[in-house]
Write a structure and sequence with these properties.
The structure holds two protein chains of two kinds. Chain A is of the alpha/beta class. Helices cover 50% and strands 14% of the residues of chain A. Among the domains of chain A are: 172 residues, Bromo adjacent homology (BAH) domain (SH3 type barrels); 162 residues, 3-Layer(aba) Sandwich (Rossmann fold); 76 residues, Helicase, Ruva Protein, domain 3, CATH 1.10.8.60; 97 residues, Arc Repressor Mutant, subunit A (Orthogonal Bundle). In chain A, the strands form four sheets. A six-stranded mixed β-barrel of chain A has the order 6-7-8-9-12-11. Chain A has a five-stranded parallel beta sheet with strand order 15-16-17-14-18, with helices on both faces. Chain A has a three-stranded antiparallel beta sheet with strand order 1-4-5. The longest helix of chain B has 17 residues. Classes of the chains: A alpha/beta, B alpha/beta. Chains A and B meet through helix 19, helix 22, helix 29, helix 31 and helix 32 of A and helix 1, helix 4, helix 5, helix 7 and helix 9 of B.
Chain lengths: 862, 395
């Protein structure tokens, strides 16, 4: 039995093993029971059901269909599933292939190979609905359980989208139909569950508890007859389907639950909250009597793991009963509830609207994980506006026209509740919209509620919402005029020589490329994790090579030669703080934005627990040395994850120094980094030459010798390819400016030499030569003082004496001390001299920043 | 240089090519002027103006760390997270945001940005040189075209860059030197003083300009300028001199004269510490002379008040008739006054425990300065003068 810390879900088999394989010691089952300890609710999920499976991102569990359930030899409960993938799981570049808007509730029949379809049964969250649709078909109107209903139109096999094949389509249809039967059968055992828990408090409770169950079936039939509107039908079906167990607990609430006015109040609250985007069931709490608060809190306390379908239907029935009370009809069965809806539609418009909104919007709230405090404040604010709101609702109701109007308004795709509350909320409810607009509160809620679901994003994205800085899209304004295309050969060459130009291949790094490629490829195929440390001086193509590897791997993955993988890159230099690395990685992986510490926790969980359907992640850590912290916990974590069994994480760490692991890392970090090292040697002149000429292939802009000269020069100094390219680029510029008089020509030795001189020349000598006379004399005085004292340091006072003497020799008026100080500080600003802080005045120590010989050389030649 | 820079910027704007460059030159060599000039020329060009060249201007003195610099950049770029001149979000968010924004652009579609980093050397001292790394990295990759231009007066700037930052910098350096000779200097002098053609009173402008021409040929004026030229080639000091001189111009004294310039030059080059000495009392002068003698005897070693007092006492005993014998507290007071004027400086911070008489001090004046100051000191007793002039303190 697997128990979870938070909600304590207990998974047990439903029914007897269907058949067991003695050899493999596995036994298959046809259903699984999920019991939540805290709320004493139970769900049964059967083969063929559609389920949500825990994923990387708590907001977006995976969608799947249960294909098989079995217990393996080690008594682990396993499930075999057929995956569906959400839009978010499809790579950005592939989404374009769809050529249409994808509603949030649409999923794709997943035919990508390589996903693990065998998952632990404990990762199942709850059951949902997946409806197959034909491609052209409009999405049906959903009235209830929006969160739990998904649609399939197309299948996705990793490369392209296909229309569902007829037999998968029918299979899915079948599954849905079967589901209806299953729910009926599940009802058979439900009463027993209800009796087991501690809920039998009063007789009435029990009565109310059992009754809905029996009524469930009735609803189905009666509904189809009595209500013809599609929306209603769906609604009732949903009720029937999901109402597997009746919430006896809830019933109790209802007994002491509010009067007529309260029902209204609740409705308004829900409204307000929905405006606030904190879609939660919770608002019931604050207004309800204290006892009730406690109770609901308990139920809500175990949010994600409770089969939400239950929860939701409970709520609907509950709210429905609120309305019952308000209309003073003392009926308890859900059947009458529904009927009640109808009646009241006619009679009490305003109330009905409240209820409708409550009833329909509640389901949308999937996981009520709001912090109670914020809920309460929201509720208080909104309740202050009840009266106002009601009148608004009245208006709205008239315009819409009760029941049928609801379905009509909800016809617009799936965003029915968004549609519904949008017209009434933002402009009519100033206070709640204000709540929404305050960036802080809304931000907070988005951060803390994993319940922020798909639905939330569209409503937030509506233009009416005030733009908070967070929503801002980072973008540089477009340029008005298109960039000019290179006109001449030289310009073309310059373009190709720019470091940013991506060459088709990386010459001279074939070996390293192959090594890295093999490393990553093997890890990818094995589905394991690993680290590799790559070092080399700047400009030797480390990052370029790694990126090239990733590109090739992605290409291979697209061609299905390799399992697909995710690619994340972080750069130590682009982080403000080492701990921000967590945030960035998490954002790349799941799109969540959280704080650094929280991100670390989430990532650790992500990488340490076996996740189904998780791709291998290739993480590139550039400028690794900057992730160094005193405790080195960032590095430690980074390199610890790949060693864990289920991480599927491959890390390529890049840094400049070869001995970084030994030098700055603690032993435990270095050992986790492993011994897979690779160092990039600086380019030799031949390699540099090859790089330049490969970039210039087809463009006749450079003399052969000129390229050689550049590469030899650079190779002698640093072997930095960037430098080499920059010099060549500069040479083309010089050539271009020289060319203007004559006919077009190619870059010759002379141009290259000029460029090299420009880049490598020491500025000091020319700086000294262009200094004023007294500055030069001052330098002479320094030299004289150094020679006298034999120490390469002197105070201004000592230099001053020499200076005065020198001035007398030159026949110049000797300057005052203030002027000397001015000269000294000027030279110091150019860093020809190194000077102390100037408050020491005459005792300030002075030192030359270049060798004495240079100064003598510079001064002599006038 | 002007052409070079213009070409460079033109390429960025027209071709969307990313670049980086450093303009290096001593103070007052016209780095910022050059850049502004080039930008002005650039804006006049048609192609460029349409491209809406943006240029965040950052100064190392204002943007003292990367966080502030980033905010300033986003503010000046008017990106979307700017709300009414204020930038929200944390440092990390801002950095990520800006990088994301710049990454989105590409060579052909987004409009080029020109980053000007004044006092570039101060950006080098930011933690990890994150800002520089990122700016240079962008300029070296296929993102939004940017040109990073740094202005600095430090010749050794490249050695301050971290190696990976250095590698990303294109090593395009433009050196500005004050390489003109004296003739050009005179020409600049004239150009600075000439009244512009659009001056309302034409006849006066004519007269003034003639006078300037005349001045520039005057021997004394040339001497003054030569002197200044020898001292510094910084044009700002010339401006300062001319400013001082021309402020003497009044209604009754409408034209500049050579004497004005000489006066200004004298003001310009006076020694500040010697000026202070002029205002001291005789007792304080005596103390300074005592210190000077001590410096000569002990060859620049530090001294304390007691030593100075003893020296002063010896002088009084010999020449008792010329000076009133002050009591020790009075002398102490005078000594403290010198301390406040920073003519003497303690070697270490005065602590509560150490007795003030025995704090080690250093004189911040050179003996030649003292002698010069004494020459012009009014009503100085002859004995004191003699004492100062004598090389042997006990005489």
């Amino acid at each position: 039995m697997n128990t979870r810390q938070q909600s304590k879900l207990i998974y047990s088999w439903y029914g007897k093993p269907l058949n067991s394989d003695r050899k493999l010691r596995t036994s298959q089952y046809k259903g699984i029971l999920i019991t939540s300890e805290s709320s004493k609710t139970e769900t049964c999920i059967q083969l063929g059901d559609f389920i949500l499976v825990e994923g990387m991102n708590a907001d977006q569990p995976y969608v799947a269909q249960l294909v098989d359930l079995y217990e393996d030899g080690a008594q682990h409960k396993r499930a075999v599933v057929q995956w569906f993938c959400r839009l978010e799981e499809i790579p950005q570049n592939k989404r374009k292939l769809l050529k249409r808007e994808i509603p949030a509730q649409e999923v794709f029949f997943d035919q990508v190979l390589g996903y693990d379809t065998d998952i632990a049964a404990e990762t199942i969250i709850k059951s949902i609905m997946v409806l197959p649709l034909h491609l052209g078909e409009e999405l049906p109107i959903i009235t209830l359980n929006k969160e739990q209903t998904f649609y399939v139109r197309q299948s996705w096999d990793g490369k392209c989208f296909k229309v569902l094949s007829p037999d998968t389509f029918s299979k899915l249809k079948e599954a849905n139909k079967k589901r209806g039967v299953i729910t009926n059968s599940s009802k058979a055992f439900t009463p027993s569950d209800i009796l087991t828990p501690v809920k039998k408090e009063t007789e009435s409770v029990v009565r109310s508890a059992t009754k809905p169950k029996n009524a469930d079936m009735e609803i189905e039939s009666k509904h189809s007859t009595s209500k013809s509107s599609l929306a209603k039908e769906r609604h009732s079906q949903r009720v029937a389907n999901n109402d597997i167990k009746t919430p006896t607990a809830r019933k109790k609430l209802e007994l002491n639950s509010p009067t007529r006015s309260k029902a209204k109040l609740l409705g308004c609250e829900v409204l307000g909250l929905l405006d606030d985007d904190c879609d939660a069931i919770a608002p019931l709490e604050p207004s309800a009597p204290k006892r009730k608060v406690k109770f609901t809190g308990e139920i809500l306390g175990s949010p994600p793991k409770i089969p939400c379908s239950n929860d939701k239907s409970k709520q609907t029935s509950e709210t429905a009963e609120h309305c019952q009370r308000s209309s003073d009809t003392m009926r308890l069965s859900p059947y009458t509830k529904v009927k009640d809806f109808h009646e009241k539609d006619r009679n009490l418009d305003e109330e009905d609207d409240d209820i409708l909104l409550v009833g329909y919007q509640k389901p949308s709230s999937q996981m009520p994980v709001l912090t109670p405090r914020s809920r309460r404040t929201c509720a208080q604010k909104t309740s202050a506006l009840i009266a106002e709101q009601i009148s608004m609702l009245d208006q709205e109701d008239f315009s819409a026209g009760s029941d049928s109007s609801y379905s009509s308004s909800s016809e617009e795709e799936e965003d029915d509740d968004d549609d519904d509350d949008e017209p009434c909320t933002p402009e009519k409810n100033p206070k709640s919209s204000k709540i929404f607009s305050t960036p802080k509160s809304s931000r907070k809620s988005t951060l803390h509620t994993p319940a922020k679901t798909l639905k939330k994003t569209p409503s937030q994205g509506t233009p009416r919402t005030p733009r908070t800085p967070r929503n801002a899209t980072p973008e540089i304004p477009r340029r008005v005029q298109a960039a000019q295309e290179p006109a001449s050969v030289l310009e073309e060459a310059r373009l190709r020589l720019h470091v940013s130009a991506i060459p088709e291949s990386l010459p001279c790094r074939e070996e390293e490329f192959q090594d890295i490629y093999n490393f990553v490829e093997s890890k990818l195929i094995d589905g394991t994790g690993g680290c590799m440390y790559i070092s080399g001086v700047p400009g030797t193509g480390k990052t370029a090579t790694v990126h090239e590897v990733i590109r090739c791997l992605q290409q291979a993955a697209e061609n299905e030669e390799l399992p697909p993988f995710q690619f994340v890159e972080i750069n130590g230099m682009k982080l403000t703080d080492p701990h921000q690395a967590y945030v960035q990685i998490l954002e790349f992986l799941t799109g969540q934005k959280v704080t650094a510490t929280h991100a670390a926790v989430l990532l650790a969980k992500l990488f340490s627990t076996p996740g189904p359907k998780r791709k291998t992640t290739v993480l590139i850590v550039d400028e690794l040395d900057l992730l160094w912290t005193r405790k080195q916990n960032v590095m430690y974590n980074l390199f610890d994850w790949p060693t864990q069994k289920h991480s599927k994480l491959i890390i390529l760490a890049i840094a400049n120094t070869m001995d970084l692991p030994e030098r700055i890392m603690m032993n435990r970090v270095a050992s986790r980094l492993g011994l897979t090292r690779m160092s990039f040697q600086p380019y030799t002149y031949k390699q540099l030459q090859q790089i330049v000429s490969s970039r210039l292939k087809g463009v006749k802009a450079f003399e052969e010798d000129a390229v050689q000269l550049v590469s030899r020069k650079v190779a002698a100094l640093s072997g930095d390819a960037r430098r080499c390219l920059d010099i060549c680029r500069r040479a083309t510029e010089i050539c271009e400016s020289a060319r203007q008089k004559r006919a077009p020509e190619i870059v010759r030795m002379a141009h290259v030499t000029e460029a090299i001189d420009e880049m490598f020349s020491s500025p000091y000598v020319s700086a000294i030569r262009n200094a004023s006379l007294h500055e030069q004399i001052f330098l002479k005085a320094i030299l004289a003082e150094f020679r006298r004292a034999g120490v390469e340091e002197a105070t201004v006072q000592q230099i001053y004496h020499h200076y005065v003497a020198l001035c007398r020799v030159e026949g110049l008026q000797s300057p005052t001390v203030s002027e000397i100080m001015a000269i000294c500080s000027r030279l110091g600003a150019c860093r020809l001299l190194l000077v102390e802080a100037s408050n020491k005045y005459l005792h300030m120590r002075v030192r030359l920043n270049l060798s004495q010989d240079d100064v003598i050389y510079a001064l002599r030649e006038e | 240089q002007h052409r070079h820079l213009l070409e460079l910027l033109k390429r960025t704007t027209v071709h969307g090519e990313s670049n980086s460059a450093l303009i290096i030159g001593p103070r007052g060599s016209g780095k910022t002027t050059l850049l502004n000039h080039v930008l002005k020329d650039l804006r006049e060009m048609e192609q460029v103006r349409e491209n809406l060249l943006e240029d965040p201007f950052l100064s190392g003195l204002l943007q003292t760390n990367d966080k502030v610099a980033l905010k300033e950049i986003t503010r000046q770029l008017q990106l979307e997270n700017v709300v009414g001149d204020k930038v929200f979000g944390s440092f990390a968010e801002n950095l990520a945001f800006l990088l994301e924004a710049l990454r989105k652009g590409d060579r052909s579609s987004s409009c080029p940005i020109l980053f000007v980093l004044d006092e570039f050397d101060l950006f080098v001292h930011h933690k990890n040189q994150t800002l520089l790394y990122n700016l240079f990295d962008i300029s070296q990759s296929a993102q939004t075209p940017v040109t990073v231009i740094g202005l600095t007066c430090r010749q050794d700037i490249l050695e301050l860059l971290e190696k990976r930052v250095k590698s990303r910098f294109s090593h395009r350096q433009i050196y500005l030197m004050n390489s003109f000779d004296f003739k050009q200097y005179i020409k600049i002098f004239k150009k600075q003083l000439y009244l512009p053609a659009e001056f309302p009173d034409e006849s006066f402008a004519q007269k003034w300009n003639n006078n300037v021409q005349h001045l520039s040929e005057d021997k004394t004026v040339q001497d003054v300028l030569q002197n200044l030229f020898h001292h510094t080639k910084d044009l700002r000091s010339l401006h300062l001199l001319l400013m001082l001189a021309s402020s003497a111009v009044t209604v009754h004294h409408p034209l500049l004269t050579a004497a004005d310039l000489q006066e200004a030059s004298r003001q310009h080059s006076t020694d500040s510490k010697a000026n202070i000495v002029h205002g001291l009392s005789v007792l304080e002068i005596c103390l300074i002379i005592a210190m000077k003698h001590l410096n000569e005897v002990y060859d620049g070693e530090p001294f304390n008040f007691q030593m100075v007092y003893n020296e002063f006492q010896k002088f009084i005993q010999r020449k008792a008739h010329s000076m009133y014998n002050f009591e020790k507290p009075v002398v102490m007071k005078a000594f403290e006054h010198l301390l406040q004027l920073e003519l003497v400086q303690p070697l270490e911070r005065p602590s509560a425990r150490a007795q003030r008489e025995f704090l080690l001090m250093k004189l911040l004046l050179d003996s030649s300065q003292i002698m010069d100051a004494l020459q012009v000191y009014p009503n100085c007793p002859t004995d004191v003068k003699q004492w100062a002039a004598s090389s042997l303190s006990w005489l």
